[in-house]
Amino acid sequence: EYLVLVDKEHALPEEFIPADILDLDSFDELETGKNGLSLDRKASDALVQLSKAAREDGITLLISSAYRSYGYQQGLFKRYADRDGEEAASRYSARAGTSQHQLGTTVDLGSISDSFAESRAGEWMAENAGGYGWSLSYPRNFEEETGYKWESWHWRWIGVDAVKMQDEFFNGVQQRLLIFWNENASRIREAHAAADQESVGLNHSGLIPRRMPKSDRLSANINSRITRQKYLPWPLPYRSPSQQYRFPQEPHMGMKSPRRNGALKRVCGLQFQAL
Asked: In angstroms, rounded to a whole number, what is the distance separating the alpha carbons of residues 169 and 184?
């Protein structure tokens, strides 16, 4: 659920409500811009840790918006569309069902304006948010991919490990990670199940084989390419010299491939929340 893709092409049902949602007013560590804001439990805990770390650096993070229901988002978009027209409004506001806020894992911070990026809080978030699992949903110059203008204040919690994957293999673009994950989630689970049945195992991300006992690794090294390809449904994407993520035509999963070994070592241990 924490990596579910929600955008203009992938909507949530009207009845969707996060299962475990908490009132942010109950957290003394959080500074909210208004009463009644709420967030998913895990995202709330991560937000508390983020806010505490920022406060230690002399920064106060003001939470201006958090969870929004389908109905609330419907009314919000209508107001913007009545004011600016639907085409203009759709560049900065989501229609009901297509807002990440409905997930309960997304917050808007500070002034909810471009000026946030130049504020101390905005600069601190850009530098530190990923370490607490928060990802900028709509980065600058990616409107063609994300569907929305740059929003320096709009942050979604996807988890520390997912942010690592995003930054390592998807050029730091959340949308690319979410598309990849949602297109391949079922295959990841199938590979994980097959590996468990044969006691070879994958790590919790479902992408990389877990570290085997020494005796098993020795056997695997004899024919590592076949062993790994059996459980990996596709080669991991990696960054080319132009910094664009891509998928190689050949898996290159052999133990002697420096580039592939490096990528595998860097991503080992990532744990993704199951969809």
From this structure: 15
Please tell me the distance from the alpha carbon of residue 94 to that of residue 173, in angstroms, as a whole number: 19
Give the H/E segment covering residue 80: helix 70-84
C-alpha distance from residue 8 to each of 16, 82, 93 (Å) = 16, 19, 10
Element (H, E) at 31: strand 31-32
pLDDT digits (tens, 9 = 90+) for 247-265: 333 333 332 333 433 333 3
DSSP 129-164: GGGGTEEESS-TT-HHHHSS---TTEEEE--HHHHH
pLDDT band for 138, please (50, 70, 90 cuts): very high
Asked if residues 271 and 204 have their Cβ atoms less than 8 Å apart, the reply is: yes
CA angle 56, 60, 63 (to 5 degrees): 135
Crossing angle of helices 160-169 and 258-267, in 10° steps, is: 160
pTM of the model: 0.75
Q: How far apart, in whole angstroms, are the C-alpha atoms of residue 221 and residue 219? A: 5
